[in-house]
Amino acid sequence: MTLCYQNVRGLRSKIRTFYNNVTQANLDIIALTETFLTSSVSDGELFPSSYIVVRKDRLGDVGWGGVLLAVRDSCEVRVISDIDGMTPDKELIFALVSCKNVKFLCCVVYLPPNYCDDQYIDVLTCIENALCTYSNLNVLVLGDFNLNSCSTNVKTQFNIFCDFCNLQQHNTVLNTRSGLLDLVLSDYDHNQLKVFPGLDPLVPIDEYHPSLDVKINLSYGEFLPGLRSSPDESSHAIPDWNWRKADFQALYTALAKLDWSELMTFTDVNSAVNFFYNKLKEIINLYVPNKKLSPNHRQYVYPKWFTPEIIENIKKKYFHLKRFKQEGKLFNKELFSFYRWRVKTLIDNAYEQHLKLIQKSIIDDPVFFWKYVSDKKKERRHTETFSYKGAEVTGQDAANAFAEYFGSVFHNEKPLLNYVDAENAANSQNNVMPISVRQVDESDFRLAIRRLKPRSAGGPDRIPAFLVKDCAPALRSPLLFIFNLSLRQAKYPEQWKLSRVTPVPKGEPGKDVSAFRPIAVLSVLAKIFETMLDFRIRNQVDNILHESQHGFRKNRATTTNLIAHVDYVCAEMDSRRQVDAAYFDFRKAFDLVSNDILLHKLAKLGFTPKLLQLFASYLDNRRQFVRVSGFESADYFTRSGMI
User: Fold this and answer.
1) From CA 598, how far away is CA 52, in angstroms rounded?
2) In 223-336, which ranges are E strands?
3) Is the CB of residue 202 less than 8 Å from the CB of residue 22?
4) Maximum CA pair distance of the chain?
């Protein structure tokens, strides 16, 4: 495991240099002190998406001091904040790290030279409390301790602290003034942990603070219990396709030549859908490789703008660095220095071209530009741990907790969904024009495809929207057959009743499960069918809906509702009449709508028995599962709620 430590003496003026060096460094862990960062600098400006970042900027957003810990997402990290004596003014980070079979408690600390004795000892006591709390783990403490400016009393207390915690000081790399400010403390012995001068610093070296490379070598270790269990245990553990490496020309050609004549012989819609998916996925598997399942074994992914020449030179650079460390030959060190210079030059040029492309996309492709901006603003902080019912949950337990919470809002009792009773009750009360959908045709299909957003997320079937949109002419005939078979049988396909749920924070990101709301994603083919049905039905019911209804209607929304309300209120006030308004907010209103009552409402609108039967099938046994942090829960039923 490779760790880089550096006191960077401020990053705000070195962001571009730092980012480019990180992208090619392929480090497991990066620890920094004196970052001088404020909230105006986002994690995405400093690190690519392959790093999890933990920051502690100085209290007050003053732009001085500060510590940072970044861990590759192939490793595991859990931030620890509930340590006795941990206060916001302390520039301290505690994290449990599991990386390459090495597990330990990591602490990054910065102690300013102007600290008084009590402040210094208070920080040491806080670190001591953390080490005692996690006494079953090895520990690694890195940071700028500024011991040379401390009193004799503090130095004595520091030695007592090291003896009590069984810590050894491993760093012997002196600065240009022959001093030692940055310390590497650990209970690993000198055979297990070694500190070397950093030959490839992330920013130009400060004269008081050399860059350090820390190597931890253990013959065997276990992953830290509770950090993450394997996603392979998930009930929906199916690898995603790697569309970045797809052979699209061959794929699209194969889909265009696919013979669907056997599909046209099916008389059961569920069998037809299963056959369709089997044929489609068989072709996709030929031309699109699978992604790796486990996040614990990810390969390092270079930025998209890296050229093959850059990657080749990076590999040569690290080859000679490895040889130099093994054999100590100056020849390898000189070649390493050459390739280091070469890589930095190539990266600077490539990044410059990348930025020009981004700037050009403001006009040519604004979506691409704003996606870049959004990525830069993102925090590289994966909320792996959540809180549910007073306990911390992570991994598979977190997915199950979200599923239990989201599923609890629905009715437990299965609805009857008796479309015959609904039809009879409606006929006894009024006589309305029948609303029906006998079949859908190519014009409906073209409309649905036109409305389909190619970048929308794929559903549980993993079929992406762009594939269906690009191959619409080839898929039109089999899909229309399935859609019309569903209408004839008045049976909605079972596979399309399943949706994937992603938890999204309601407001500020938090850890409690109740602070999230579910966003359900349907399969793309289900979206297309629903769009076609919506278009056919809406044309028949728009003229019978009340004028005051604004929800779920085309060209109407909360804004038009508010305009109508304000217009009425203003007119009444102009006439000097009193206006009283009562506002209601029903909790989980849409999730708790009775499916049986909904079916009766549709019958009263004039839905034919065949269409009612289709909607009863649509509502029956609908299921969802939660996906969070690569883990997926078991299915749960949604026995109530709006369509």
Assistant:
1) 46
2) none
3) yes
4) 97
Strand 76-80 vs strand 92-99: parallel, antiparallel, or unpaired?
antiparallel
User: 102 forms bridges with which residues in the sheet?
Assistant: 99
DSSP assignment of 309-367: HHHHHHHHHHHHHHHHHHH--HHHHHHHHHHHHHHHHHHHHHHHHHHHHHHHHHHH-HH
Ramachandran angles phi, psi of 274, nearest 5°: -60, -45
Average pLDDT, the chain: 89
Contacts of 56 (CB under 8 A, 6+ apart): 66, 67, 68, 91, 92, 93
Q: Which residues have a Cβ under 8 Å from the Cβ of 202 and sit 6 or more positions away?
A: 4, 6, 8, 18, 21, 22, 25, 30, 32, 211
* Structure token digits, residue 201: 């610093």
Contacting residues for 243 by C-beta, under 8 A, at least 6 apart: 288, 464
Q: How far apart are CA 376 and CA 379, in angstroms?
A: 8
Please give the average per-residue pLDDT across 415-439, as a whole number.
84
Q: What is the pLDDT of residues 50-71, one digit of tens each?
A: 899 999 998 887 778 999 999 9
Task: Specify which residues 517 forms β-bridges with.
Answer: 504
Amino acid at site 222? E
Burial 206-218 (b: 16+ CB within 10 A, else e): bebbbbbbbebee
> Contact 541/607 with Cβ under 8 angstroms?
no
The answer to whether 623 and 614 have CB atoms below 8 angstroms apart is: no
> How many angstroms separate the Cα of 597 from the Cα of each of 363, 373, 437, 609, 611?
50, 46, 21, 16, 16
| pLDDT tens per residue across span 62-109 | 778 999 999 998 888 888 988 999 999 999 999 999 887 788 999 999
Residue 131 pLDDT greater than 50, yes or no: yes
3-class state of residue 108 by DSSP = strand
Bridge partners (DSSP) listed for residue 640: 594
Query: Where would I find the beta strands (DSSP E) of 476-606?
Result: 498-505, 516-521
Round to whole Å and give the CA distance between 448 and 535. 9
SS3 491: coil
Cβ-proximal residues to 581 (8 Å cutoff; 6+ apart), any chain: 565, 569
pLDDT recorded at residue 20: 93
In degrees, rounded to 5, the angle at the alpha carbon of residue 357 between the alpha carbons of residues 454 and 348 is 130
Do residues 353 and 305 make contact, with C-beta atoms less than 8 angstroms apart? Answer: yes
Q: In whole angstroms, give the CA distance from residue 384 to residue 78.
A: 8
Contact 559, 474 (CB under 8 A): no
Q: Could you give the dihedral angle defined by the CA atoms of residues 272, 276, 277 and 280, in that order, rounded to the nearest 10 degrees?
A: 170
Q: Tell me, what's the pLDDT at 521?
A: 95
Amino acid found at 1 = M
Buried b (16+ CB within 10 A) or exposed e, 21-39: bbbbbebbbbbbbbbbbee
Give the separation between CA 627 and CA 630, rounded to whole angstroms. Answer: 6
Question: Token pair of 82, please?
Answer: 């509930």
